[in-house]
Structure formats: structure tokens, C-alpha cells
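Private note to self, pasted from the team thread so I don't lose it. C-alpha cells:
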């Protein structure tokens, strides 16, 4: 048997939609199919054409009438916070100190890290998410557990050991030297192995001394192929404390700028309360602002200003930020993104939402030649979406006619129940869970 023919309604973006009427931004095949072989997409198009090109004995996975879209991508998530979701707190700093830093200490135990990592990957897949950029805990063994869990599912993931050497419990602190050494060893062990990518991860300026920032800068210089992930300008109290810890910096962004941590592979979680200067620097360096809607609402952090960032040509990604975020679902994430932008008087079309979860996030991660689309030659990470997954969705679908309408109800009413199946490098994963 050679290959697998995945049949259904195929939807993939080719560019960022200009507006809800921009039909040139995507390709859509009503009776479509993908031909998958050796983990890659070999052909995409009308079923009749793709089937003709396939061998006669090709296996067929018939997902009609469901939608076939690229596997969803989550650009910022904390894997050790899986059991800290839904913790009742005031805002960021109290939440970190009361719950998060307590929870993350458990990851010193490699067995615990492995237990959570396995369930974390399964939960992502149940929600149709095939790629994440994840923070692990300060413990190198948590990174090993994370990458091992991704590797045996053949998932494309980004991850890294959090570095923090102050303002956290002693059990969660490394030192500038040990953070550097551990990160170097982890990069040697995991970066570029199969579908795995390493992110150099100083948690945020509050938990890193200037000495640790220097060491982070050295790591970035020595490993230009790695990502960098950190948090920026999420919460007013956080910003005030950060400014007091780095009094010479012109602003919060200026700290990361000073240490050479900005660039096209830098993922900056939140970016809510930025000055004009900060927005300009983020744009100039090609760094990515990561919008985490459910987290920003749950922690009362503020309303992301997408228009301001877009008009300044800042690259934008979207993410759950579990456990500050409250759902693993990228559909729910876009639902909340839409509502945040409503409060800002900004509009997010459903075409844009689906672009952002797929090709948009792939571009933000510089992975668009591999994931985020269904173009032949790319890796076969695919989500199958059922717009009639619940009785209420079925009722609503009776009055939906246009594709954009269907996408909008999927995002507004959908969650893991709307993910009928997910393929990782061509292999079906959800039914087996
Ligand atoms: N800032 C620093 N660490 C964290 C974290 O774990 N979650 C969120 N939301 N913000 C942070
Ligand atoms: Zn975060």
C-alpha cells in the first residue's frame, strides 16, 4: 500500500486575507483531497484529480462533509502549567507566586514531567493543535520529557528550559552559569533533531538578573538557529517592577534590545502595553508579538492592540498561553481574540482567524515552508473540523451558507468536540487517544 488519500472539503491559505471577501487569500476544494506519503503532502486538489494521480490501491480516509485544514499552531504555551489552569487569583504576579511557581517545582521529578508531557501532547492533539512553542520548567529533565513526548508522536514543536535566577522560589532558580550550561547541553541534545526546535528561554526580565541576560545573549550569539521566547509588557504591575529592576533601560523592550535578544526568531508573549518606541523596535527587529487572548482576559492583563501593531508592521502570532490561558483550543482562542478586538473597536474576520491559526502562525515561527499549509511538499499535519459537532452547532449550520459563515461559527461555538481527527506527519492520532 502506498500513501493515504484524505478526502473532504480542503481549505488552506496562500496569503494573509485583506478582508472577509478576499477569496484570493485561500484555496478551497469542495470535494477535495490530499495525497499523503511518507509524512508529506504529495498532492492537493479536487478529489477526482488527486485520486487519479494516486495508485489504485491507495487507502482512503473519507472525512466528508468535514473541513480539512492545516494542523493548528499555538505560538506560546507553558507545558508545566497544565495542572495550574483555572487557578483563582488576582493578576499576573500574584498568580505566578501563588500557583505557577508552586506547580513548576514538581517538574524536578522526571517521572512527573514525563507523566504531564505525555498528557499535554495528547491534549494538544485532541484540540487539533499539531505544533506549539512551549516553555518548559527550569529543570532540564522537563525539557527532555517534553521533547521525548513530541518525538514519539513525530510532532513539530519548539521548546526550551526556562532560565530564572531571581524573584522565584530557590528551588526554581538556576544561576547565570548553570542556566547557560544546561541550555547549551539541551540544544546539543535536541535542536534540529527530527522535527524538534530549541527556544532559548529567559522567562522575563523580572526573573533574570543582568548577568543572566548577558548569558542569554551569549547563547543567542552562539546558536543563531535557535528561537528565543520571553514575556513582554503583559501587566501594569509587572512593567513597573521591571522598570525598577532595570532603571537604565528606556523601557521594557529596551532591556531585551540591549541584550541582543530581539530578532526574527524572537517570540514576545503578550505585548499589550507598549509605547510607540517599543512598537517601532519590535517591528524593526522583525520580532513577533504573541497575542494570548484567553490569558489576557483571565489574568485581567489588558486588551491587545492589533491595529496599532499591524499598522507598524509588527509580526503577530496567536496562542493559548496555558495555564494563564484557559483553553487548549485554538478555536476558543480565536473566539476570545475576536471579543477582545471588539472591545477595542477592531474587527477580526473569520478568514483572518483561520489564517492566523495556520499559515499566519507558521510564518511567525518561520516554518511556513514546512507546516501551516496543505501545499504539496509540506509536512502532513492536518486537522479535520466538524462544523456540526454539537446539536447547537448543527442547528446553526442549517442557516449558514457561505464558507466564512461556517468558519465563524466553528470559531465561536467550536472546541475539541469540533476536531474530528488530526494527522501528524500523515498519521491519524485522535481516534487512537
Ligand atoms: N510572565 C512570566 N511568566 C509567565 C507565565 O508563566 N505566564 C504568563 N501569562 N506570564 C508570565
Ligand atoms: Zn506565558
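Design output:
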Amino acid at each position: 500500500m502506498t500513501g493515504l488519500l484524505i478526502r473532504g472539503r480542503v481549505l488552506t491559505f496562500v496569503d494573509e486575507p485583506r478582508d472577509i471577501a478576499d477569496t484570493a487569500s485561500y484555496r478551497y476544494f469542495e470535494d477535495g483531497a490530499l495525497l499523503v506519503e511518507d509524512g508529506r503532502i504529495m498532492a492537493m486538489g479536487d478529489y477526482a484529480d488527486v485520486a487519479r494521480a494516486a495508485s489504485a490501491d491507495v487507502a482512503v480516509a473519507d472525512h466528508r462533509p468535514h473541513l480539512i485544514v492545516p494542523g493548528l499552531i499555538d505560538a506560546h504555551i507553558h507545558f508545566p502549567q497544565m495542572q495550574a489552569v483555572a487557578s483563582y487569583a488576582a493578576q499576573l504576579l500574584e498568580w505566578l507566586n501563588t500557583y505557577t511557581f508552586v506547580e513548576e517545582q514538581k517538574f524536578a521529578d522526571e517521572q512527573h514531567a514525563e507523566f504531564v508531557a505525555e498528557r499535554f501532547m495528547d491534549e494538544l492533539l485532541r484540540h487539533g493543535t499539531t505544533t506549539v512553542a512551549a516553555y518548559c520548567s527550569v529543570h532540564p529533565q522537563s525539557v527532555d520529557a517534553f521533547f521525548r513526548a513530541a518525538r514519539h508522536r513525530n510532532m513539530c514543536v519548539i521548546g526550551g528550559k526556562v532560565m530564572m535566577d531571581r524573584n522565584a522560589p530557590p528551588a526554581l532558580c538556576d544561576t547565570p552559569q548553570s542556566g547557560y550550561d544546561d541550555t547549551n547541553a539541551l540544544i546539543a541534545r535536541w535542536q534540529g533533531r527530527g522535527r524538534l526546535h530549541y527556544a532559548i528561554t529567559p522567562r522575563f526580565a523580572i526573573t533574570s538578573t543582568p548577568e543572566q541576560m548577558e548569558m542569554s545573549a551569549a547563547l543567542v550569539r552562539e546558536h543563531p538557529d535557535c528561537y528565543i521566547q520571553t514575556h513582554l509588557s503583559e501587566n501594569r504591575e509587572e512593567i513597573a517592577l521591571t522598570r525598577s529592576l532595570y532603571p537604565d533601560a528606556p523601557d521594557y523592550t529596551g532591556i531585551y534590545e540591549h541584550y541582543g535578544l530581539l530578532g526574527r526568531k524572537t517570540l514576545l508573549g503578550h505585548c499589550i502595553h507598549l509605547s510607540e518606541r517599543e512598537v517601532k523596535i519590535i517591528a524593526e527587529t522583525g520580532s513577533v508579538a504573541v497575542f494570548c487572548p484567553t490569558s489576557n482576559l483571565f489574568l485581567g492583563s489588558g486588551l491587545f492592540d492589533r491595529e496599532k501593531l499591524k499598522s507598524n508592521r509588527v509580526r503577530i502570532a496567536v496562542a493559548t498561553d496555558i495555564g494563564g490561558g484557559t483553553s487548549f483550543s485554538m478555536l476558543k482562542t480565536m473566539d476570545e481574540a475576536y471579543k477582545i478586538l471588539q472591545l477595542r473597536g477592531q474587527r477580526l474576520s473569520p478568514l483572518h482567524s483561520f489564517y492566523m491559526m495556520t499559515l499566519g502562525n507558521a510564518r511567525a515561527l518561520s516554518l511556513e515552508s514546512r507546516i501551516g499549509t496543505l501545499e504539496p511538499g509540506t509536512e502532513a499535519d492536518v486537522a479535520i473540523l466538524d462544523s456540526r459537532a454539537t446539536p447547537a452547532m448543527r442547528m446553526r449550520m442549517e442557516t449558514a451558507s457561505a464558507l466564512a459563515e461556517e468558519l465563524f461559527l466553528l470559531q465561536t461555538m467550536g472546541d475539541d468536540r469540533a476536531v474530528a481527527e488530526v494527522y501528524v506527519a500523515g498519521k491519524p492520532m485522535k481516534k487512537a487517544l
